[in-house]
Amino acid sequence: MLSESSSFLKGVMLGSIFCALITMLGHVRIGHGNDHEHHHLQPPNKDDILKISDNERMGLSKSFRVYCIILVKPKDVSLWAAVKETWTKHCDKAEFFSSENVKVFESINMETNDMWLMMRKAYKYAFDKYKGQYNWFFLACPTTFAIIENLKYFLLKKDPLQPFYLGHTVKSGDLEYVSVEGGIVLSIESMKRLNHLFDDTEKCPEQGGMIWKISEDKQLAVCLKYAGVLAENAEDSQGKNVFNTKTVGLFIKEAMTNHPNLVVEGCCSDMAVTFNGLTPNQMHVMMYGVYRLRAFGHIFNDALVFLPPNGSDND
Protein backbone atom coordinates (compact mmCIF):
# COMPACT_ATOMS: atom_id res chain seq x y z
CA MET A 1 0.00 0.00 0.00
CA LEU A 2 2.84 2.34 0.92
CA SER A 3 4.49 1.49 -2.39
CA GLU A 4 1.33 2.39 -4.30
CA SER A 5 1.01 5.71 -2.39
CA SER A 6 4.62 6.49 -3.12
CA SER A 7 4.13 5.81 -6.84
CA PHE A 8 1.01 7.98 -6.85
CA LEU A 9 2.86 10.88 -5.19
CA LYS A 10 5.74 10.54 -7.64
CA GLY A 11 3.25 10.68 -10.51
CA VAL A 12 1.64 13.82 -9.10
CA MET A 13 5.04 15.48 -8.68
CA LEU A 14 6.18 14.56 -12.20
CA GLY A 15 2.88 15.81 -13.61
CA SER A 16 3.27 19.12 -11.75
CA ILE A 17 6.83 19.54 -13.03
CA PHE A 18 5.69 18.78 -16.58
CA CYS A 19 2.87 21.36 -16.36
CA ALA A 20 5.32 23.95 -15.02
CA LEU A 21 7.68 23.20 -17.88
CA ILE A 22 4.87 23.64 -20.42
CA THR A 23 3.94 26.98 -18.83
CA MET A 24 7.54 28.18 -18.96
CA LEU A 25 7.93 27.17 -22.60
CA GLY A 26 4.72 28.98 -23.46
CA HIS A 27 6.24 32.24 -22.18
CA VAL A 28 9.67 31.92 -23.75
CA ARG A 29 10.38 34.81 -26.08
CA ILE A 30 12.38 33.89 -29.15
CA GLY A 31 14.59 36.00 -31.36
CA HIS A 32 15.17 39.73 -31.49
CA GLY A 33 12.44 41.00 -29.17
CA ASN A 34 10.78 44.33 -29.90
CA ASP A 35 13.16 45.82 -32.49
CA HIS A 36 10.64 45.36 -35.32
CA GLU A 37 9.53 48.63 -36.90
CA HIS A 38 6.39 47.65 -38.82
CA HIS A 39 3.51 45.48 -37.74
CA HIS A 40 0.34 46.54 -39.56
CA LEU A 41 1.16 47.07 -43.22
CA GLN A 42 -0.93 48.98 -45.76
CA PRO A 43 -0.76 49.43 -49.56
CA PRO A 44 0.75 52.55 -51.14
CA ASN A 45 -1.30 55.70 -51.53
CA LYS A 46 -2.97 55.82 -54.98
CA ASP A 47 -2.03 59.48 -55.38
CA ASP A 48 1.65 58.54 -54.99
CA ILE A 49 1.29 55.92 -57.72
CA LEU A 50 -0.19 58.52 -60.09
CA LYS A 51 2.96 60.61 -59.63
CA ILE A 52 5.18 57.82 -61.01
CA SER A 53 6.51 58.60 -64.50
CA ASP A 54 5.47 56.50 -67.49
CA ASN A 55 8.97 55.02 -67.77
CA GLU A 56 8.97 54.04 -64.10
CA ARG A 57 5.54 52.45 -64.47
CA MET A 58 6.67 50.41 -67.44
CA GLY A 59 9.77 49.31 -65.55
CA LEU A 60 7.75 48.27 -62.51
CA SER A 61 5.14 46.43 -64.55
CA LYS A 62 7.85 44.31 -66.19
CA SER A 63 10.24 43.80 -63.28
CA PHE A 64 7.85 43.10 -60.40
CA ARG A 65 7.73 39.29 -60.21
CA VAL A 66 5.98 36.94 -57.77
CA TYR A 67 6.71 33.21 -57.50
CA CYS A 68 3.77 31.13 -56.24
CA ILE A 69 4.07 27.92 -54.19
CA ILE A 70 0.99 25.71 -53.85
CA LEU A 71 1.15 22.78 -51.42
CA VAL A 72 -1.08 19.88 -52.51
CA LYS A 73 -1.88 16.25 -51.75
CA PRO A 74 -3.48 13.61 -54.03
CA LYS A 75 -6.83 14.02 -52.26
CA ASP A 76 -6.86 17.65 -53.45
CA VAL A 77 -6.87 16.72 -57.14
CA SER A 78 -10.12 18.56 -58.02
CA LEU A 79 -8.98 21.69 -56.19
CA TRP A 80 -5.56 21.30 -57.75
CA ALA A 81 -7.14 21.37 -61.22
CA ALA A 82 -9.23 24.45 -60.39
CA VAL A 83 -6.26 26.37 -59.00
CA LYS A 84 -4.17 25.49 -62.04
CA GLU A 85 -6.94 26.64 -64.40
CA THR A 86 -7.69 29.90 -62.59
CA TRP A 87 -5.69 32.32 -60.47
CA THR A 88 -2.21 30.74 -60.68
CA LYS A 89 -2.07 31.81 -64.34
CA HIS A 90 -1.57 35.33 -62.97
CA CYS A 91 1.54 34.39 -61.00
CA ASP A 92 4.79 35.11 -62.81
CA LYS A 93 5.60 31.48 -62.11
CA ALA A 94 3.56 28.95 -60.15
CA GLU A 95 4.65 25.47 -59.11
CA PHE A 96 2.81 22.75 -57.24
CA PHE A 97 4.55 20.81 -54.49
CA SER A 98 2.91 17.47 -53.74
CA SER A 99 3.26 14.93 -50.94
CA GLU A 100 3.84 12.15 -53.49
CA ASN A 101 4.12 11.58 -57.20
CA VAL A 102 0.83 12.30 -59.01
CA LYS A 103 0.58 11.36 -62.69
CA VAL A 104 -2.44 13.55 -63.45
CA PHE A 105 -0.65 16.89 -62.92
CA GLU A 106 2.91 18.07 -63.07
CA SER A 107 4.31 18.70 -59.60
CA ILE A 108 7.49 18.58 -57.53
CA ASN A 109 7.41 15.51 -55.28
CA MET A 110 8.29 16.33 -51.66
CA GLU A 111 8.05 12.64 -50.64
CA THR A 112 6.36 13.35 -47.31
CA ASN A 113 2.85 13.78 -45.91
CA ASP A 114 4.08 16.06 -43.13
CA MET A 115 2.90 19.59 -43.97
CA TRP A 116 5.79 21.32 -42.17
CA LEU A 117 8.35 19.19 -44.01
CA MET A 118 6.54 19.91 -47.30
CA MET A 119 6.58 23.64 -46.61
CA ARG A 120 10.21 23.55 -45.53
CA LYS A 121 11.34 21.60 -48.61
CA ALA A 122 9.29 23.80 -50.95
CA TYR A 123 10.84 26.99 -49.56
CA LYS A 124 14.33 25.51 -49.86
CA TYR A 125 13.70 24.38 -53.45
CA ALA A 126 12.29 27.79 -54.42
CA PHE A 127 15.16 29.72 -52.84
CA ASP A 128 17.92 27.52 -54.23
CA LYS A 129 16.49 27.59 -57.77
CA TYR A 130 14.95 31.06 -58.07
CA LYS A 131 16.69 33.39 -55.60
CA GLY A 132 18.12 35.39 -58.48
CA GLN A 133 14.85 35.63 -60.41
CA TYR A 134 12.09 36.52 -57.92
CA ASN A 135 11.99 38.95 -55.00
CA TRP A 136 8.63 37.87 -53.54
CA PHE A 137 7.41 34.36 -52.72
CA PHE A 138 3.73 33.59 -52.12
CA LEU A 139 2.67 30.26 -50.58
CA ALA A 140 -0.96 29.09 -50.64
CA CYS A 141 -3.27 26.14 -49.94
CA PRO A 142 -5.31 24.53 -52.75
CA THR A 143 -8.48 25.99 -51.17
CA THR A 144 -7.17 29.56 -51.57
CA PHE A 145 -8.08 32.00 -54.34
CA ALA A 146 -5.57 34.82 -54.84
CA ILE A 147 -5.72 38.06 -56.82
CA ILE A 148 -2.05 38.43 -57.71
CA GLU A 149 -2.39 41.94 -59.18
CA ASN A 150 -3.69 43.18 -55.81
CA LEU A 151 -0.78 41.44 -54.10
CA LYS A 152 1.68 43.20 -56.39
CA TYR A 153 -0.01 46.53 -55.77
CA PHE A 154 0.16 45.98 -52.01
CA LEU A 155 3.88 45.16 -52.21
CA LEU A 156 4.70 47.93 -54.67
CA LYS A 157 6.44 50.25 -52.20
CA LYS A 158 7.88 47.46 -50.02
CA ASP A 159 11.60 46.74 -50.28
CA PRO A 160 12.16 42.98 -50.82
CA LEU A 161 15.66 43.39 -49.39
CA GLN A 162 13.95 43.99 -46.03
CA PRO A 163 12.67 41.00 -43.99
CA PHE A 164 8.94 40.95 -44.78
CA TYR A 165 6.68 38.10 -43.61
CA LEU A 166 3.05 39.07 -44.08
CA GLY A 167 -0.53 37.92 -44.55
CA HIS A 168 -3.37 37.32 -42.08
CA THR A 169 -1.83 37.25 -38.60
CA VAL A 170 -3.11 35.15 -35.71
CA LYS A 171 -2.06 35.30 -32.05
CA SER A 172 -1.27 32.08 -30.16
CA GLY A 173 0.12 32.78 -26.70
CA ASP A 174 3.23 34.90 -27.22
CA LEU A 175 3.59 33.74 -30.80
CA GLU A 176 2.10 35.76 -33.65
CA TYR A 177 2.07 33.93 -36.96
CA VAL A 178 0.70 34.29 -40.49
CA SER A 179 -2.10 31.80 -41.16
CA VAL A 180 -1.38 29.53 -44.11
CA GLU A 181 -5.13 29.57 -44.87
CA GLY A 182 -4.89 33.18 -46.01
CA GLY A 183 -1.58 32.73 -47.83
CA ILE A 184 1.95 33.62 -46.74
CA VAL A 185 4.22 36.20 -48.38
CA LEU A 186 7.98 36.26 -47.83
CA SER A 187 10.47 38.74 -49.27
CA ILE A 188 13.76 37.48 -50.68
CA GLU A 189 15.52 38.69 -47.52
CA SER A 190 13.20 36.61 -45.33
CA MET A 191 13.75 33.62 -47.62
CA LYS A 192 17.50 34.04 -47.26
CA ARG A 193 17.30 34.15 -43.46
CA LEU A 194 14.89 31.22 -43.34
CA ASN A 195 17.04 29.01 -45.55
CA HIS A 196 20.08 29.85 -43.45
CA LEU A 197 18.15 28.70 -40.36
CA PHE A 198 17.23 25.37 -41.98
CA ASP A 199 20.81 24.30 -41.20
CA ASP A 200 20.22 24.96 -37.49
CA THR A 201 18.03 22.06 -36.36
CA GLU A 202 17.86 23.35 -32.78
CA LYS A 203 16.23 26.65 -33.73
CA CYS A 204 14.36 25.35 -36.79
CA PRO A 205 13.80 21.58 -36.35
CA GLU A 206 12.46 19.40 -39.13
CA GLN A 207 10.04 17.63 -36.82
CA GLY A 208 8.26 20.64 -35.38
CA GLY A 209 7.68 21.37 -31.70
CA MET A 210 9.92 20.33 -28.82
CA ILE A 211 7.22 18.50 -26.88
CA TRP A 212 4.18 18.30 -29.13
CA LYS A 213 3.66 18.87 -32.84
CA ILE A 214 2.51 22.32 -33.92
CA SER A 215 0.99 23.39 -37.24
CA GLU A 216 3.25 24.24 -40.17
CA ASP A 217 2.39 27.96 -40.14
CA LYS A 218 3.23 28.24 -36.43
CA GLN A 219 6.48 26.35 -36.94
CA LEU A 220 7.42 28.74 -39.75
CA ALA A 221 6.79 31.69 -37.43
CA VAL A 222 9.01 30.14 -34.74
CA CYS A 223 11.87 29.68 -37.22
CA LEU A 224 11.51 33.18 -38.66
CA LYS A 225 11.34 34.73 -35.19
CA TYR A 226 14.79 33.32 -34.45
CA ALA A 227 15.97 35.20 -37.54
CA GLY A 228 14.40 38.46 -36.37
CA VAL A 229 11.51 38.28 -38.84
CA LEU A 230 8.10 38.89 -37.28
CA ALA A 231 4.61 38.32 -38.67
CA GLU A 232 2.84 41.38 -40.06
CA ASN A 233 -0.84 41.83 -40.80
CA ALA A 234 -1.71 43.19 -44.25
CA GLU A 235 -4.55 45.74 -44.25
CA ASP A 236 -6.08 48.28 -46.60
CA SER A 237 -6.27 52.03 -45.87
CA GLN A 238 -9.45 51.43 -43.80
CA GLY A 239 -7.85 48.75 -41.64
CA LYS A 240 -9.64 45.82 -43.32
CA ASN A 241 -7.71 42.59 -43.82
CA VAL A 242 -6.62 41.94 -47.39
CA PHE A 243 -5.56 38.33 -46.75
CA ASN A 244 -8.70 36.43 -45.76
CA THR A 245 -9.20 32.98 -44.26
CA LYS A 246 -12.88 32.69 -45.30
CA THR A 247 -14.90 32.74 -48.53
CA VAL A 248 -16.56 35.88 -49.90
CA GLY A 249 -19.96 34.22 -49.34
CA LEU A 250 -19.28 33.70 -45.66
CA PHE A 251 -18.13 37.30 -45.24
CA ILE A 252 -21.32 38.56 -46.93
CA LYS A 253 -23.46 36.31 -44.73
CA GLU A 254 -21.75 37.67 -41.61
CA ALA A 255 -22.15 41.25 -42.85
CA MET A 256 -25.88 40.73 -43.47
CA THR A 257 -26.23 39.61 -39.85
CA ASN A 258 -23.93 42.16 -38.22
CA HIS A 259 -24.30 45.15 -40.58
CA PRO A 260 -27.57 44.71 -42.53
CA ASN A 261 -27.51 48.30 -43.79
CA LEU A 262 -23.84 48.17 -44.82
CA VAL A 263 -23.45 44.73 -46.36
CA VAL A 264 -20.87 45.70 -49.01
CA GLU A 265 -18.96 48.13 -46.79
CA GLY A 266 -19.07 45.70 -43.87
CA CYS A 267 -17.92 42.71 -45.91
CA CYS A 268 -14.46 42.85 -47.39
CA SER A 269 -11.68 45.07 -48.62
CA ASP A 270 -11.88 46.39 -52.19
CA MET A 271 -8.21 45.47 -52.49
CA ALA A 272 -8.50 41.92 -51.10
CA VAL A 273 -5.64 39.63 -52.05
CA THR A 274 -6.94 36.23 -50.92
CA PHE A 275 -10.03 34.29 -49.85
CA ASN A 276 -9.96 30.75 -48.52
CA GLY A 277 -12.19 27.69 -48.14
CA LEU A 278 -13.36 27.67 -51.77
CA THR A 279 -14.65 24.68 -53.72
CA PRO A 280 -13.52 24.12 -57.34
CA ASN A 281 -16.78 25.63 -58.64
CA GLN A 282 -16.36 28.68 -56.43
CA MET A 283 -12.85 29.15 -57.83
CA HIS A 284 -14.26 29.45 -61.34
CA VAL A 285 -17.03 31.82 -60.15
CA MET A 286 -14.38 34.03 -58.51
CA MET A 287 -12.33 33.97 -61.70
CA TYR A 288 -15.36 35.14 -63.66
CA GLY A 289 -16.20 37.91 -61.19
CA VAL A 290 -12.65 39.20 -60.74
CA TYR A 291 -11.21 38.94 -64.25
CA ARG A 292 -13.97 38.55 -66.82
CA LEU A 293 -17.15 40.39 -65.80
CA ARG A 294 -17.11 44.02 -66.95
CA ALA A 295 -19.74 46.77 -66.93
CA PHE A 296 -20.27 48.07 -70.48
CA GLY A 297 -19.31 51.72 -70.87
CA HIS A 298 -17.24 51.77 -67.68
CA ILE A 299 -13.60 52.71 -68.30
CA PHE A 300 -10.94 51.22 -66.04
CA ASN A 301 -8.12 53.68 -65.39
CA ASP A 302 -5.67 51.78 -63.22
CA ALA A 303 -2.55 53.78 -62.48
CA LEU A 304 -0.33 50.76 -63.14
CA VAL A 305 -0.72 47.61 -65.23
CA PHE A 306 1.31 44.52 -64.35
CA LEU A 307 2.35 42.81 -67.56
CA PRO A 308 2.69 39.01 -67.60
CA PRO A 309 6.06 37.50 -68.56
CA ASN A 310 6.69 36.32 -72.11
CA GLY A 311 5.15 32.92 -72.83
CA SER A 312 2.65 33.21 -69.96
CA ASP A 313 -0.84 31.73 -70.31
CA ASN A 314 -2.17 34.58 -68.17
CA ASP A 315 -5.70 35.31 -69.42
Automatic annotation (TrEMBL):
Membrane topology listed for this record: Single-pass type II membrane protein
Subcellular location(s) of the protein: Membrane
InterPro entries registered for this protein in UniProt: C1GALT1/C1GALT1_chp1
Biological processes per GO annotation: protein O-linked glycosylation
Record GO cellular component, one term: membrane
Keyword Membrane: yes
Gene3D superfamilies cross-referenced by the UniProt entry: 3.90.550.50
Keyword Lyase on entry: no
GO molecular function, a single term: glycoprotein-N-acetylgalactosamine 3-beta-galactosyltransferase activity
Keywords: Membrane, Signal-anchor, Transmembrane, Transmembrane helix
Family classification: Belongs to the glycosyltransferase 31 family. Beta3-Gal-T subfamily.
PANTHER family in the record: BETA1,3-GALACTOSYLTRANSFERASE, C1GALT1-SPECIFIC CHAPERONE 1
Name used for this protein in its record: C1GALT1-specific chaperone 1
Lineage: Eukaryota, Metazoa, Chordata, Craniata, Vertebrata
